[in-house]
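Sample entry copied in:
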Amino acid sequence: MADITKAKDEELLAQLGYKQELRRELTSFTNYGVALSTICICSGLTSLFGYGLITGGPAVMTLSWFIVAFFTMFVGLSMAEICSAFPTSGGLYYWAARLSKPEHKAFASWMTGWFNLLGQVACTAGVCFGLALMIAATASIATDLTYTPTPAAIVGIHILIAISIAIANSLGPKFMARIMAVSTIVQVVTPFLIVIIVLAKAPTKQSATYVFTDYENLTGIDSMAWVVLVGLLMAQYTFLGYDSCAHVAEETKRANVSAPIGIILGIGMSALTGFIFIIGLLFSMQDYDATIASPTGLAVAQIILDATDKPTAIFLMTLNCVCCWFCGYTCILANSRSIFAFSRDNAMPFSKVWHSIHPRLQIPLNANWLACVLYCLLALPYLGNPTAYTAITSIATIGLYISYGIPIACKLMNPELFETPGPFCLGKWSKTVNVVSVLWICVITVLFMLPSVMPVQATTMNYACVLVGTVGIGSLLVYVISARHWFKGPITNINESEKVKLEESLLAAN
C-alpha cells in the first residue's frame, strides 16, 4: 500500500512538471499540524493582545474574531480547492501560472511569488520577534518586574531564536516529521491549558457584559468605525500561514487530499481555540489600565501574572514560548520550501544556490539559512522605532493575502483552465466562495495600510504601505525591465522518459 501511495504521489507531481526531489515524511495528521503551527494561536494572540485592547477593546476583539474567522474560511476553502488540483511546493505562484492564460502566466507567477516571499519572511520575523517579547516578559516576571528589556536585548533574543529554528530545520525530514507530530498536539493543548488555569485561579472575573460589549479606544482616532476596522489586524494576523500546507506538499503523502484538508482543519480548529483563548483571558483580566501599562511589555503576561502567581505565570509563559517556537520552526520550514520552489524556476538571484538539495539530508539547506538571515535583518528597525513590530505584522498580512488572492482571481477570470479539480472540490459553490475571498482580501489590503494610531508621526506611522509598495513596484519594474525576457513561469524539470518510468512503477505497484 505504501508503495502504491508513493508511486501515485510521484506520478501526480510528474504530471505537474516536477520530479520527486524531497522525501515524503509528512502524513495527513502532520500536514494539518503544519497549518495549526503556522497559525499558532499562542503566537499571534499573545503578541497582539495589547494592540487589541487599545483598538476597540474587548468588544472589538471578540466581534472581530468571528468576522475574520468567517471570511478567512472562504479564503481557505478557495485555496484548498486549488491546492488539491496542484499540490506542489511552489504553491501559490505555481497556481497563478497554471490558472493564467499563456501570455499572462509569467507575470502572474512572478508577482505572486514575490508577494508570497515578502509575506512569509515578514510573518516568520514577526513570530520570532513576538517570541523574543514573550521571553523578555517571562524574565521580567521572574525578577519581580525589575527587569525591563532594552530594544537591543529584544533584537538579540530575536536573532538567537531565528538561528535556533534554522538549526532545527537543518536536521532532516525525519526530525521534521517528529517535530510536527509533537507541535500538532502542543498547539491544541497549550491555549486550553493556559485558559483553564488562569480562569481557575483568577481572584475575580469580568462580567460577560464587559467581555462582549466594552469598547476601549486609546489610538487617538476619533472614528469608531476606523478603530473597529484597524482592530481586525489582531485576528487577521493570527490567521496567517496556512498556505504552508501547500509548500510542504512535495513532502506529504497523498498531498492532493492531505494538504487541502490540512488548510481547512487548521483554520477551523484555530478559530475555535482562538475564541476560547480570547474570552478566557478577558474574563480573567483584573485591571485594564494595569494590563495596558504592563512593565512586562505584554498584556497577556500581565493578565496571567495578575490572575495567578509568580511560579504559575512563569510556567504558563514558558509553555507559551515553547508553543511559539514550534510556530517559528514551521514557518521557516514553509518559507525555505517556497524559496526552493521559486528558485527551481530561476526566479531569484543566485537561484542555483537556493535550489540546491543537501545530498544526505534531502532538504533545501541553503534556502533555510537564507530565510534565517532575512528574519534577522527585519528585526533591526526596532532598534530605532518601537512601532516596527506592528509594521511587520501588517506587512506579513498584506503580502501573504495578496499572494493568496492572485491565483484565486486568476481562477475566476479563467475558469476553463480549472477543468480538472482535485479530490477536494467546491462544486457549484466554487465561484461564490472565490468571489467572497477576493473581495475580503481587497478590503483587508487597504485596511492594514491605514494608520492605527493618531497623530501620525515618524515613530507611529504604519510603514507597511511603504514596504509593500516598494516590493510591489520593485517586482513590477524588475519584471518589465528584465525578467519578462527570461522568466517564463514554472519550468518543468522532468522529461517524458522519466514520466514513463513513473507510470510503469505505478502499474508494477498495483
The mean pLDDT is 87. The first strand starts at residue 55 and ends at 56. The chain has one domain: 25-489.
